[in-house]
Amino acid sequence: MSIVYDERVDGVLPKVDKAALLSELQARLPDLDVLHTEEDLKPYECDGLSMYRTTPMMVVLPEHIGQVETLLKICHQRQVPVVARGAGTGLSGGALPLEQGILLVMARFNKILEIDPAGRFARVQPGVRNLAISQAAAPYELYYAPDPSSQIACSIGGNVAENAGGVHCLKYGLTVHNLLKVEILTVEGERMTLGSDALDSPGFDLLALFTGSEGMLGIVTEVTVKLLPKPQVAKVLLASFDSVEKAGRAVGDIIAAGIIPGGLEMMDNLAIRAAEDFIHAGYPVDAEAILLCELDGVEADVHADCERVRQVLEAAGATEVRLARDEAERVRFWAGRKNAFPAVGRISPDYYCMDGTIPRRELPGVLKGIADFSEEYGLRVANVFHAGDGNMHPLILFDANQPGELERAEALGGKILELCVKVGGSITGEHGVGREKINQMCSQFNSDELTLFHAVKAAFDPSGLLNPGKNIPTLHRCAEFGSMHVHHGQLPFPELERF
Amino acid sequence: MVVRHDADASKALLEQVNQALNSGTKLRIQGGNSKAFLGRKVEGEVLDTRVHCGIVSYDPTELVITARAGTPLVDLQAALDEAGQMLTCEPPHFAEDATVGGMLAAGLSGPRRPWSGAVRDLVLGTRVITGFGKHLRFGGEVMKNVAGYDVSRLMAGSLGCLGLVTEVSLKVLPKPRECVSLRFEVDVETALKNLAEWGQQPIPISAASYHDNALHLRLEGGEGSVASARERLSCELLDGDYWQQLNEHQLHFFRSETPLWRISVPNNTGVLALPGEQLIDWGGAQRWLKSDSDAQTIRRIVSEAGGHATCFTPGACDSPMPPLSAPLQRYHRQLKAQLDPQGIFNPGRMYPEV
Ligand SMILES: Cc1cc2nc3c(=O)[nH]c(=O)nc-3n(C[C@H](O)[C@H](O)[C@H](O)COP(=O)(O)OP(=O)(O)OC[C@H]3O[C@@H](n4cnc5c(N)ncnc54)[C@H](O)[C@@H]3O)c2cc1C
After folding, report:
1. Do residue B268 and residue A116 have CB atoms under 8 angstroms apart?
2. Which of A319, B158, B279, B317 has its CA 20 to 30 A from that of A346?
3. Alpha-carbon distance B309 to A420, whole Å?
4. Ligand 1 pocket test: which of A149, A216, A219 has the largest number of ligand atoms within 8 Å of its C-beta?
5. What is the spatial order of strands in the sheet that A191-195 belongs to?
6. Per-residue model confidence as pLDDT tens digits over A171-199
7. Where is the FAD-binding PCMH-type domain (chain A) (predicted)?
8. Domains and CATH numbers, chain B
């Protein structure tokens, strides 16, 4: 089963003459791999958000930048929309193809071009997998810090496009904090360098603007990332709690003690049990919540911090605090967390992952709100949480084969995101807006703010050919969405006419 | 002028911008005017942000502070200090009345920059009065937020050319428990070689500069790591005030009439044969140069090393900001035209066309 989206309110896409485009591509780019038959296109229907599916008009799999350059020039001239795709692990439908567009798959650009240990950087092609960078840097005792749970599969180009995070973000930052330079092809097929080999670059910070722009402003063709020295030691504490509120407060207490853990993650009982069944990480299945707190750095500091954190956790009411005895146990503790999504996938036919962020102090209230929604909609919700930086991943369990459950899951998800916005948070911390959260953007931003986003887009892609219909909703979409969701008795866009 | 320390003047600022839009008046945005030397000269009606000041919210356990643009930077830092926290980017003040908005617009960071990030890395959210005369909010007070384009970070270092920032939320961190500064008498080649080597090891370096035949190093972290690194690198101690004097350009090196250039290069760049006297900061990634040479000569040598040079002495160079590549220049123009279509905000401060 899949969700059919209302394209009408995102504006009409140009009609493309597929046969003419195909013959031009074949004539001008004879080496380019082009897929255009129904059965070849099937595998590219969706990204990691498999509920949303569209068959692309055509898929191209270039292997050198010159091909992408020519392709973009052709598409620009013919006004053909282009959707970039990395590894297709995105969870917001950002790489969802268009029936009238080309899906530009960057996965074959998988070469590590340079590792410079003295300069502490790696220069790589966009299709290189996140983990492959750290593996290539490992012989020099260096690594690339951002570590999304999907790191064995997701591409660095996709990471740049989504500003991906990971479990070590609070201390080491997001993708945007770990980039030096990105090579771009503009919508017109022109090469442009953002950032530099130095720590900054002249002019506006376009590197920051492009990071997280979901393939809407340009195509990433090369990425230079910073490498960090591997911490000497890393230790993990696992703390059990008999209530999620207590666990939530403990997070604030750790930070109030002046400690910034390398990773600080929380899971609730449903997530704990699912992960334990799957990975046998040694989690306490009776706990209402667990916290995983990783401390890394130089041995002497880590040792002292472990003691401090243990005291904080005990004072905060932890029922048990365990230090991973050895590296094998540490890896097991993390494996449980990093496999939480597939683990939940085993206890439910389908699940829907949310990505809201909130100020940490709001956690108890928001968890309570989620529990109430869960009851109201009759669907279970498992909570996995980047607790250190306030990024929640409620997983809504449902069965798409039961009539109405998918729609209920979607509606429940929307409620959770709106709650996040209400307490001062955001609808997405790392997975992006994509196609999925396009309606919730109307809750987070008013029409003037959305208009400014459209102005930014217009500066780089005035004809809207790059990934149309994603990330920033049209004001018409918000008017339609708003007419269904009335806030405080007032429509969010009173100035727009209703249809 | 009397500065009040907690005042919401956003309505007045919005009105001034709207009047400027209606009458086609150019605005020169100004805080404490402590960074007036940076960029090109702007003609226009002064918009003084200092009327809009005060800390809007600060909850140390959330690691976020939100302040109005006209808040004196010293006030913001005093509040953080009281809670044992800091702005890791160590922004230079250059004058007592430097403001938070000016810090953001100038985007300058201090000695800790290579290890802890720049001003832009701390930005979580902003409120901005736009070239359409609207007061808008981007980002917020949460650590992670990828909804929409990152307009807030774009404002950092934009020299006020894209809009008037009225409020900013910044990520803050606890101060390190231990801090020690060291001084080694070595030649510059050895100093750079050592820095490249140490950079690949988990040594808690948080600042590194070279001048007057000596490498200056700051170690920050827990008691254990700082003590063991200090033992390993045994050498003479340095007064910790040194770093502030470096950051604020109060060292002897900076007391000079000769034009001053800021040079940003890849961190493993060797000794640069530039005409003039140099001071190396940021572990090698930033060099200060005192030189009477022309901009072209300096920029040619620097760009061959993969870097860029900004002139810090007003009037010493027609184009103080480093030149942009042709496509970048075009997109800068287009971005300015989209966000500030009437060109009222600091026109020409960064480049003639923006
Ligand atoms: C099990 C699982 C766990 C996950 N955990 C995390 C996590 O911990 N943290 C996190 O941040 N994310 C996580 N994700 C989401 C996802 O892995 C990230 O968003 C990742 O960055 C996507 O990379 P990708 O290569 O798969 O991109 P895709 O899904 O192929 O594309 C994502 C977006 O990037 C654009 N894009 C891709 N390549 C380019 C390019 N070269 N140029 C321009 N635009 C491009 C696409 O158009 C699309 O908008 C998880 C996903 C799964 C399935």
Report:
1. yes
2. A319
3. 44
4. A149
5. A112-116, A121-124, A219-226, A179-185, A191-195
6. 999 999 999 999 999 999 999 999 999 99
7. 52-230
8. 10-174 (3.30.465.10), 176-255 (3.30.70)
Query: What is the percentage of chain B residues whose pLDDT exceeds 70?
Result: 99
Are B188 and B218 in contact, with CB atoms under 8 Å apart?
no
Average pLDDT over residues B186-208: 94
Residues across chain A: 499
Three-class SS of residue A22? helix
Tokens of A181: 């330079």
CB B226 within 8 A of CB B178: yes
**Predicted complex ipTM:** 0.97
Q: Please, what are the domains in chain A?
A: 7-105 (3.30.43.10), 233-343 (3.30.70.2190)
pLDDT tens digits along B139-165: 999 999 999 999 999 999 999 999 999
**Hey, of B58, B120, B142, B170, which one would you mutate to test binding to chain A, going by the most A CBs within 10 A of its CB?**
B142
Quick one: tokens of B121? 């890395």
User: Contact B118/B273 with Cβ under 8 angstroms?
Assistant: no
Rounded-to-integer distance, Cα A333 and Cα A292, Å: 8
Would you say A98 and A121 are in contact if contact means Cβ atoms under 8 Å apart?
no
Ligand 1 centroid distance, CA of A53 (Å): 16
pTM of the model: 0.96
Strand B260-264 relative to strand A121-124, pairing = unpaired
Residue B178 half-sphere exposure, CB side, CA atoms within 13 Å? 16
